[in-house]
Amino acid sequence: MNINEFCSRYAAGQRDFRNLNLMAANLRNLSLVGVNLSGANLTKANLTRTNLSHANLTGAILIGANLSETNLTKANLTDANLSNTNLDDANLSQAYLRGALRNHCYNSVSSGSDAKGSSGS
Q1: How far apart are CA 120 and CA 44, in angstroms?
Q2: Are 100 and 79 in contact (CB under 8 A)?
Q3: What is the spatial distance between Cα 39 and Cα 17, in angstroms, rounded to a whole number?
Q4: Tens digits of pLDDT across the chain (121 residues)
Q5: Are 74 and 92 in contact (CB under 8 A)?
Q6: CB within 8 Å of 7: residues ≥ 6 apart
Q7: Which among 90, 96, 95, 94 is positioned nearest to 109, based on CA atoms?
Q8: In this predicted structure, what is the pLDDT of residue 104?
Q9: CA angle at residue 71 from 66 to 73, to 5 degrees?
Q10: 3: which residues sit within 8 A by CB, 6+ positions away?
């Protein structure tokens, strides 16, 4: 599925995009509230300033992705791979991070003290 089809389906109300390959996709500045991208490959994707609040990113591969200024409020990032991910100024308020791999993240994250779960490093 290409990015235009993905955006079109999301706009039509579809939210389930499990295991989708969006490697190196440019998804910056989109509103993807409540999207299910569990198991998706978002390696090197540009998600700058994207609204992913309430998103399901369980087991998603986000290696090298740009999540700067991304809204991840109440997102589920359980077991997500965030290695080499740019989380500069990302909002992780009440996000679920249990089991998320965060090796070498670039982050001045605005998560506050309410991000849930623990993560590997």
Answers
A1: 20
A2: yes
A3: 9
A4: 999 999 999 999 999 999 999 999 999 999 999 999 999 999 999 999 999 999 999 999 999 999 999 999 999 999 999 999 999 999 999 999 998 877 655 555 554 445 555 444 4
A5: no
A6: 30
A7: 90
A8: 52
A9: 130
A10: 22, 25, 26, 27
Report residue 113 as tokens: 């003290």
Per-residue DSSP letter, 42: -
What backbone phi and psi angles, to 5 degrees, belong to 71? -90, 110
Tokens of 53: 């609040």
For 117, the token pair is 């779960």
d(CA 112, CA 79): 20
4 token code pair: 């235009």
| Cβ atoms within 10 Å of 94's Cβ, excluding its own | 16
**pTM for the complete prediction?**
0.86
d(CA 72, CA 46): 14
Which pair of structure tokens corresponds to residue 72?
Answer: 């991840």
**Distance separating alpha carbons of residues 49 and 101, to the nearest angstrom:** 22
Planar angle of CA 39, 41, 46, nearest 5 degrees: 130
